[in-house]
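In the design runs reported in the main text, the only information available to the sequence generator was the tokenized backbone. The following block is the verbatim input for one such run; it is reproduced so that readers can re-run the procedure and compare outputs position by position.
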């Protein structure tokens, strides 16, 4: 009995431990789907297989909704779903009969719904030789594509939107364009009638043999074949360019660069159908230097009527000087030789104004290409060189209060007067400048001319005023020397009377206002000044005579003798 008891206890403990281990392992739900990807739409079946003590509790969600199964007693759960868009299905919160959380295997999956593409091949095809270039549109999202043809040939290259088919022979070829988007597959076809098409060709040249550096050159094409417009690819050795020719007469304007020449190479022609041809033909153009002259003086002022102008020319280039503008409305500028690099520019000295200025332009000409010119402009200023005169430097007067003198060289020049105290200058007429307010003794008048860059020039006139001057004889004999008898300063004695007596006391000549002058002080206003030796009866004989001279300013009359002599020495 004791042994049996112990065996029973041991068996009971083993059963209890086994059951405890069973519950300790927990429940498991394994989720499976018959299909997870469809084209356009589809129905998916979800199957859940359970392990562990039932009944089970779990939840599942899809399309924004959550669904619960609180008391599922079967080992298998099946559910069908129909979708037309991508959706995620999840199984979660799985528990066994004791409320213990179980494991969910593959509890989260996404069902993908692929959209059917609608591929198209463009009706516009580009042909060249036996090549056909096709443009295509996959018509939606895609994961793969392929191009195939019914006849022999190859596609190279082939992309999702473009392919070039190289046919082995002419004739009809059916091209199939297939596009895949996941499990969706669609295709379209195009029947091509392939003919042999010639590649574009052309000859080209640079029209100009030589041009000025920086100027344009013309690329001209001839014997062009191909379908317009034609894309022209060319290079100048450094950069590549592309232009479109719309017809056989069209030209391309380029601006070559380089030190002395430029070369252009025509690389490829591509016509409107995409037919291309590689030519690699070249032509050259000479680039001549454009002169950049600099005149050797810059906006310079000169004194005088001429100036030397010069420029340094490049190598054996030619040049030409010209007057662009006479800004001062001057007397006119001339060149000794306008084609010399160093020449003389001058004005007419007789007509030169005090200040003249001219805008000059020097043009340098490349002798190798006379269309290549450069210029430089400068301002030339000329100040007239003062050469002035106030007449005789010394003048003597007798009791004169005003005299006049003529000047030379002042016209148009900037001048100033400086004179003794009390003098007045009236220079309204430069050919008759009147000095008034003269005093006895020395009177000095100074004229100063300061004209631009020229040296300052001065001229001085000294005027000496004396008392009456009396002579004692004259000789009216026609030799033009001492032909009349005068009293110096008589014209300055107002209301004067001059009377001549012979030795017997008889009056032979009398004149009031003797030696008078006109109001401006000009004695040439009268036909006769002084006594010419004649009386009313005719010429007086040689001999000794007496005379008297009286007037308002004289305290007492002047009495003296004079000798009249007619014979010539």
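Verbatim output:
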């Amino acid at each position: 009995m004791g042994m049996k008891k112990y065996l029973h206890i041991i068996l009971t403990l083993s059963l209890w431990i086994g059951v405890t281990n069973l519950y300790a392992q927990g429940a498991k739900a394994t989720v499976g789907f018959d299909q997870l990807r469809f084209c356009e739409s589809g129905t998916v079946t979800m199957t859940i297989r359970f392990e562990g003590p039932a009944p089970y509790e779990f939840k599942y969600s899809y399309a924004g909704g959550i669904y619960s199964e609180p008391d599922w007693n079967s080992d298998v759960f099946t559910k069908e779903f129909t979708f037309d868009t991508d959706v995620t299905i999840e199984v979660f919160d799985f528990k066994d009969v004791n409320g213990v959380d179980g494991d969910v295997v593959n509890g989260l999956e996404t069902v993908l719904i692929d959209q059917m593409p609608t591929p198209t091949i463009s009706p516009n095809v580009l042909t060249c030789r036996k090549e056909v270039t096709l443009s295509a549109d996959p018509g939606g999202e895609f994961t793969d594509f392929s191009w195939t043809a019914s006849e022999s040939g190859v596609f190279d290259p082939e992309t999702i939107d473009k392919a070039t088919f190289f046919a082995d022979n002419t004739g009809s070829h059916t091209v199939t364009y297939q596009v895949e988007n996941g499990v969706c597959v669609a295709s379209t076809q195009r029947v091509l009638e392939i003919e042999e098409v010639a590649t574009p060709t052309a000859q080209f040249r640079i029209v100009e043999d030589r041009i000025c550096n920086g100027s344009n050159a013309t690329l001209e094409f001839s014997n062009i074949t191909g379908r317009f417009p034609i894309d022209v690819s060319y290079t100048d050795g450094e950069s590549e360019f592309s232009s479109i020719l719309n017809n056989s007469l069209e030209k391309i304007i380029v601006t070559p660069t380089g030190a002395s020449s430029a070369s252009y190479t025509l690389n490829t022609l591509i016509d409107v159908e995409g037919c291309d041809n590689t030519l690699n033909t070249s032509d050259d153009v000479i680039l001549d230097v454009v002169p950049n002259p600099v005149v050797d003086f810059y906006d310079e002022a000169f004194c005088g009527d001429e100036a030397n102008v010069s420029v340094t020319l490049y190598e054996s280039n030619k040049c030409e000087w010209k007057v662009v503008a006479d800004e001062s409305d001057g007397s006119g500028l001339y060149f000794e030789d306008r084609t010399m690099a160093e020449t003389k520019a001058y004005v007419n000295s007789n007509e030169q104004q005090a200040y003249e200025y001219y805008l000059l332009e020097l043009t340098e000409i490349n002798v190798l290409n006379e269309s290549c010119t450069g210029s430089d402009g400068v301002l030339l200023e000329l100040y007239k060189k003062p050469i002035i005169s106030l007449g005789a430097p010394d003048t003597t007067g007798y009791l004169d209060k005003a005299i006049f003198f003529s000047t030379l060289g002042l016209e148009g020049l900037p001048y100033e007067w400086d004179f003794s105290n009390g003098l007045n200058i009236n220079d309204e007429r430069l050919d008759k400048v009147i000095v008034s307010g003269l005093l006895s003794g020395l009177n000095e008048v100074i004229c100063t001319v300061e004209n631009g860059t020229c040296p300052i020039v001065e001229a001085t006139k000294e005027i000496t005023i004396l008392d009456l001057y009396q002579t004692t004889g004259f000789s009216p004999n026609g030799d033009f020397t001492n032909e009349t008898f005068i009293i110096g300063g008589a014209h300055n004695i107002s209301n004067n009377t001059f009377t001549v007596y012979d030795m017997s006391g008889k009056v032979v000549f009398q004149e009031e206002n003797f030696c008078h002058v006109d109001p401006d002080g000009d004695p040439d206003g009268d036909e006769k000044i002084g006594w010419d030796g004649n009386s009313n009866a005719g010429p007086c004989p040689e001999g000794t005579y007496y005379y008297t001279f009286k007037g308002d300013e004289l305290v007492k009359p002047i009495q003296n003798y004079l000798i009249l002599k007619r014979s010539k020495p």
